[in-house]
């Protein structure tokens, strides 16, 4: 199998529970690049929350962020960007606020919330590092040019929230569940596969020459697009069911195991 492009998800795939890239995973990326394989990330994170990991492992390609809605180089040059329809985005924000669900959204690589309430999100101290901005009800001003929204719930209600959101926005928004506390919200048809397609076309790489690694529902589209897909041992069952191979758990460096086996031939 001649892999020319390796695309990996971040959380639950490349990043361990401490949100770090292990030395073994970093080495696997380095060795793949030395072999001539191009490597990048495809993540639901905003670019600003992903770029430091790309710099850490010296990625040689732009990063696919916001589930394919944004592609930027590590130095911030925009390759591609897609915005959710302004009216639909505002409706989604208002719908969440009416239901007392926490929602955040991304505009020009900045994170917005209606109001900062640290008690609603135990990890907010990490979010502060990327300068959260408050809309404070000014949605006319702060609901334009949104590339992605994220609904968060740490109380375990995501599985009950998701169908309500989907019922309201079926045919208007895609809403993959990305963890037990997170729903990503993007325009219909925007996904990681779209981002990979843009990069693959730029570098003359065919889908059959692409390997992807992931763990959750927002990875389904890229699993369907790439020639070879690897699900993490901790992946959702929906991902494992369509994967070409299943590797070890994220805490056991399953990403590195897959790269070593299918790209490096170890």
TrEMBL record:
Gene3D superfamilies, sorted: 3.30.1240.10, HAD superfamily/HAD-like (3.40.50.1000)
GO cellular component: cytosol
Superkingdom of this protein's organism: Bacteria
Molecular-function GO terms, alphabetical: magnesium ion binding; phosphatase activity
CDD domains associated with the record: HAD_Pase
Keywords: Hydrolase
Name used for this protein in its record: Cof-type HAD-IIB family hydrolase
Protein's organism: Selenobaculum gibii
Lineage of producing organism: Bacteria, Bacillati, Bacillota, Negativicutes, Selenomonadales
């Amino acid at each position: 199998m001649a892999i020319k492009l390796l695309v990996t998800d971040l959380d639950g795939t490349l990043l361990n529970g401490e949100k770090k890239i292990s030395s073994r995973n970093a080495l696997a990326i380095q060795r793949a690049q030395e072999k001539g394989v191009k490597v990048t990330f495809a993540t639901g994170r905003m670019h600003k929350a992903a770029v430091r990991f790309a710099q850490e492992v010296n990625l040689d390609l732009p990063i696919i962020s916001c589930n394919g809605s944004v592609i930027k180089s590590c130095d911030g040059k925009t390759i591609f960007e897609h915005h959710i329809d302004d009216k639909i985005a505002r409706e989604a924000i208002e719908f969440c606020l009416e239901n007392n669900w926490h929602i955040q959204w991304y505009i020009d690589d900045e994170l917005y919330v209606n109001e900062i309430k640290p008690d609603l999100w135990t990890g907010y101290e990490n979010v502060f590092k990327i300068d959260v901005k408050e809309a404070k009800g000014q949605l006319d001003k702060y609901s334009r040019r949104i590339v992605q929204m994220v609904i968060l719930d740490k109380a375990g209600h995501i599985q009950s929230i998701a169908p309500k959101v989907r019922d309201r926005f079926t045919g208007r928004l895609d809403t993959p569940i990305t963890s037990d506390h997170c729903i990503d919200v993007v325009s219909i048809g925007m996904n990681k596969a779209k981002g990979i397609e843009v990069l693959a076309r730029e570098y003359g790489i065919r889908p059959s020459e692409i390997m992807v690694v992931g763990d959750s529902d927002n990875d389904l589209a890229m699993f369907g697009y790439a020639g070879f897909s690897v699900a993490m041992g901790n992946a959702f069952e929906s991902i494992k069911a369509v994967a070409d191979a299943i590797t070890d758990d994220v805490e056991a460096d399953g990403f590195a195991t897959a790269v070593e086996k299918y790209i490096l031939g170890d």
